[in-house]
Amino acid sequence: MMSVTCSKKSAFMAAGLALSLAFASTASSQQSQNKDERPLPSVAESTTIFRQLEPELQRFVDRQPRLPGQEKHVFVRITPDLSTGIVWIDLDSGYTPKGQTEFSEEFGDKLGEVEAELYEYLSGTVGFKYVIARIGGKTINEIFPPERLLKRKDQRSTRAASGPLPGLVLINPGHGKYFHHGENVWKYERPTPYAGTTNVYEDDVTPQYASTLDTYLTSRSYMYATDVRHTRDILMPFIEPESNLPWKDLAARYYIKSLLPNEGPKIWNLYPNGKPGNENLREYDEDVMARAKYANHINAETFISLHTNAAGPTARGALVMTQLDDPSSVQLSNNILCYMKEQINALENYSDFVIRPALVNGSNKAEVRDPEMPTALIEVAFHSNTEDAAALQDSAFRSAAMKGVEKGYRTFKKGETDCRPLTITNVPAVTGPPRRDIPYTVQFVGSPTYPLYLRSKVVTCPPNYLCSQNSTQYVSPGSAPGTLNAVARCTTAYPVSGSVIVLDRYLEDSDGVKSPMVRTSITCV
Range of 170's domain? Predict the structure, then answer.
């Protein structure tokens, strides 16, 4: 969804960052022998890095094409907040186009490009919380307050009177085709094909993800998601008469129009004559705005948008945008990030697929800034990268990614506020006589999908013992959450006193998610 022009880090910047990191991570390197486990330097430890990045970000802003009314030269500063971990980008007030009185997606995209550029530099380098841009000391929400904040302020929201509909989840399946009034043709909103292809487009791929997510919400989150709807008619193959295209190909504006024909001025026909200078794209602009307005109109309880990302050819991974000023949206999005990582990385082919841990500011997107309910926009991967583009077309990857989104939603609704990957917290060493059950208890954290399996891998086996891999199935959670009752055995009739069977035990759920192995033993007496 994002259109980002990411400049390639120069050799000078890379060398400078490497030198800074060498100093910043000295302490953490002493805490861990495993390079992959070293914590990233904090914002407070990275002031040198920010000073080095500031000129680079200035050059990026200088190269940005200007919108009408934007000043040519805009001064840029990076202002890290050492106490909160937020990295602020401060831009001159001239970055706001003169005379602009309301939010526009074009302006939001420009500001989002600046945030994304710095995010790219910091990701995997500094342990930051958020990257947020300010113009003249104000955020975009302060300059152009979204409807949800205005309604909250004056207490006149229709949702405040009626409240959200419990269990109503609205999915936006990305973009679709729109009518271009200048060329009098129907066009993809995202017309650039996926890297490595000539005929695969975001507008056609995201509905597959939405359909998969719908299936998992309906089958796995049925206690919470009692009504799942979409902003596009993604399953309708019949022709829409005005466009002569299948309904499933069209953008949200047209489906919403068919559902709410009398709500045009409020939802899907906001710009009947187009914005000044943008008249030919009026239906594109209306589509962008209609998604959140429709979510508010139907009183959805949760709003989830699915997109694929675009940037330079090296940018990779999944990320989540949200309303950083709304705690519920932040919690929903953090849970989604946690379990997307769990589910995707459980696949052997995607064990190192990048899930970016820092949430992205969504105030630059109408689809995120205006909804009056917990909201998450998922950029599943970068279709501008050949490896990510191939993953996006893989049904196994699609299934795992959407299982992660569903699990994030479900754990959010259950009230889970911390990321809990499947992990054994206690598995005791046991001692017992031969050929008799030795009961023991395993304790774990996480939210596994049942049936759950406790598996064992033999590390060492004494001579003349019969040691084998074994597995115990648990069909459903027991009465004590996070606890499994199990039995072990000495596998010989004539044990040598003190003989020890050494085992690695781990959990694996029905989605293939595995816990780290924990070393334990059985001592035979």
Answer: 145-414
